[in-house]
Amino acid sequence: MNIENLLKENATIVDVRTSQEFRGGHVSGSINIPLQEIQNRMEEFKCMQKPILLCCASGNRSGIAAQFLNNNGIESINAGSWLDVNYYQSLTA
Fold it and tell me: Greatest CA span in the chain, whole angstroms?
């Protein structure tokens, strides 16, 4: 399934960039959980509406986050750059 279709299903968008990067621009409605905080915030992920789409600046950090979450039983998808997710979200509006 592609990102645009997942967004139509009201996916939860989690931006794993730093809070400073997030303040500089982000996808509307996204949640900021920096990569280094994910391990300590697992309960939040367990309560999130699925699917969970992860984004960052380039897709590298979100890929690391997706691998960690999936390895710990939380299904998530690396959606890549937040700018790409923002674009796909604009197509669903």
Answer: 34
- For residue range 36-59, list pLDDT tens digits in order: 999 999 999 999 999 999 999 999
Q: Which residues pair with 35 in a beta bridge?
A: none
For residues 54 and 33, give the distance between their C-alpha atoms in angstroms, rounded to a whole number. Answer: 10
- Does the predicted TM-score (pTM) go above 0.70? yes
CATH number (domain holding residue 50): 3.40.250.10
Domain of residue 76: give its range: 3-92
Domain total for the chain? 1
List, for residues 72-87, the tens digit of each pLDDT value: 999 999 999 999 999 9
Q: Check: CB of residue 58 under 8 Å from CB of residue 15.
A: no
